[in-house]
Design a protein that fits this description.
This protein has 267 residues and is of the alpha+beta class. The protein has two domains: 193 residues; 61 residues, no CATH class. It is built from seven helices and eight strands; from the N terminus they run H-H-H-H-E-E-H-H-E-E-E-H-E-E-E. A five-stranded antiparallel sheet has the order 2-1-3-4-5. A three-stranded antiparallel sheet has the order 6-7-8. Helix 1 packs antiparallel against helix 2 and helix 2 crosses helix 5. The longest helix has 27 residues. Bound molecules: zinc ion (ZN). The site of zinc ion has 7 residues, from loops. Zinc ion binds next to loops.
Length: 267
C-alpha cells in the first residue's frame, strides 16, 4: 500500500476535489437559472445529470486521496458502472467516516475553534444513492421499450438537489483514510477557493478495544449518535467480531439510557 504521509499534501489533494465540486455546483446553478433552453430539453438535463454524477463521485472518493491505490480502485469501480450502493459500502469498509458531516463554524476567528453539527437539510447517504441512480438513468441511452424518464418531474427538482449538496459541503468535517486528523472545510473560503484546516485528533485510540483498533482504523466511536434521539452516545466495550458474516458489532449507550449497536462490514 502506498501511502502519502504528508498531511499538507493530502489536504491540498482533498481541497482540489472540493474545488472541482464547487465549480460544478456553480455550473449547475447557472444552467438552472438560464431560461433559454436549447432545441432539445434532454440535453440541458443531461448536462446537469453529468455534473451531479461527477460531484457525487468526488464526494465518495475525496476521502481516499491519501491512499493512491484505494483511490484508483474505487475510481475504476465508478468508471465501470458498478452499483453506487456497493461502491459506498466498499468505501465504508475501509473508512467508516468517509461521508462528510455538515457543520457550522461557530467562532469567527481565522481558524475556527468550534463547530456545531448541521442536523437536517443536507444530502443524506440514502439521497446520494437515489440521486446517483436517477442521474445515471438520464445519462444512458434510452431503451426504446422502456417508459421515457420523466423530465418534467426531474428538472424542477434539480435546484432542491443542488441545495442539499450545498448544505452538505458548504462547511463540513471529514476524515481522510489512513490518517487520524479531522479536517474542517470551507467550500467557498478565501477568494472563493475551497479551504481546509487540519484539526488535532479529537479522540484517543487507547480508549478503544482491540477489535475496533485493528478493524476500523479511521473510525471514531465517540462521534456515534443514537438513531432514535440523535444524541452522541457512549461506546461500550467490548466490540464483538463475527468472523462468519465478516461483521464487527459495536455497542453504544445513549444518554437517554438505552443501548444500541452498529454493525460494520470488515475484510
Ligand atoms: Zn437514544
Amino acid at each position: 500500500m502506498e501511502n502519502s504521509n504528508d498531511e499538507t499534501d493530502d489536504l491540498s489533494k482533498y481541497l482540489d476535489c472540493m474545488q472541482e465540486i464547487a465549480l460544478r455546483l456553480i455550473g449547475i446553478k447557472l444552467k438552472i437559472n438560464e431560461l433559454k433552453v436549447t432545441c432539445y430539453k434532454y440535453i440541458e438535463v443531461e448536462f446537469i445529470c453529468l455534473q451531479f454524477r461527477k460531484i457525487l463521485e468526488f464526494i465518495a472518493l475525496a476521502n481516499l486521496v491519501s491512499n493512491k491505490e484505494e483511490y484508483a480502485k474505487k475510481h475504476q469501480n465508478f468508471a465501470n458502472h458498478y452499483h453506487a450502493k456497493h461502491i459506498l459500502r466498499d468505501i465504508e469498509e475501509i473508512n467508516p467516516n468517509f461521508y462528510p458531516q455538515p457543520i457550522q463554524f461557530i467562532s469567527t476567528d481565522e481558524i475556527p475553534q468550534q463547530v456545531a453539527d448541521i442536523e437536517s437539510g443536507y444530502l443524506t447517504k440514502e439521497e446520494f444513492l437515489h440521486l446517483y441512480n436517477e442521474c445515471s438513468e438520464f445519462l444512458h441511452a434510452k431503451n426504446p421499450f422502456a417508459a421515457p424518464k420523466d423530465l418534467e418531474k426531474f428538472y424542477p427538482e434539480c435546484e432542491n438537489w443542488l441545495n442539499k449538496i450545498f448544505i452538505l459541503l458548504y462547511q463540513h468535517q471529514t476524515q481522510l483514510i489512513d490518517t487520524k486528523q479531522y479536517i474542517w472545510v470551507d467550500l467557498f473560503g478565501e477568494d472563493g477557493y475551497a479551504q481546509g484546516h487540519v484539526m488535532e485528533s479529537i479522540f484517543n485510540m487507547n480508549n478503544f478495544d482491540d477489535n475496533l483498533k485493528s478493524h476500523l482504523k479511521n473510525y471514531n466511536p465517540e462521534s456515534e449518535k443514537c438513531p432514535d434521539h440523535g444524541k452522541i452516545s457512549k461506546f461500550t466495550s467490548p466490540s464483538k467480531l463475527n468472523q462468519i458474516d465478516k461483521k464487527l458489532i459495536v455497542n453504544f449507550e445513549c444518554p437517554d439510557g438505552h443501548q444500541f449497536t452498529r454493525e460494520f462490514y470488515i475484510k
